[in-house]
Amino acid sequence: MENENYPIWKHSFLYGIYLGVALIIVSLIFYILGLYGEQWTGYISYVVLLAGIIMTSIAYRNKYLGGFITFGQSFSVAF
């Protein structure tokens, strides 16, 4: 475990910015292609959001917790 005292909010904030930018880019692509009002584009946005949340938890687990994370820690990172 590299640093047990690393605050969860710093990691979550950084990955939240990355995820927000990714969702903006996806929305812009749909808007440019004229698909913004389609229902299936919302599902793709949810998949991107879910993938970002999972990647954030996995990255925090691997980088700061030595490969083990509790449900509470995972929930805190994802929240």
Explain how this protein is built.
The chain has helices spanning 8-32, 39-64, 71-78. With 79 residues, it is mainly alpha-helical. The longest helix is centred in the middle third of the chain and has 26 residues, at 39-64. It starts with 7 loop residues before the first helix and ends with a helix.
Fraction in helix: over 70%
Low-confidence regions = none
Overall morphology: elongated
Largest sheet at a glance? Answer: none
Overall mean pLDDT score? Answer: 86
Structure classification: mainly alpha
Please state roughly what percent of the residues sit in beta strands, choosing from under 5%, 5-15%, 15-25%, 25-35%, 35-45% or over 45%. under 5%
What's the number of extended β-strand segments?
0
Measure the end-to-end span.
22 Å
List the quaternary state of the chains: single chain
Count of alpha and pi helical runs: 3
Radius of gyration: 15 Å
Task: Sketch the topology as an H/E string, one letter per element.
Answer: HHH
List the SSEs and their pairings.
Layout: H1 8-32, H2 39-64, H3 71-78
Helix pairs in contact: 1-2, 1-3, 2-3
State the main characteristics.
79 residues, mainly alpha
Summarize it.
The protein has 79 residues and is mainly α. It has helices at residues 8-32, 39-64, 71-78. The protein has three helices and no strands.
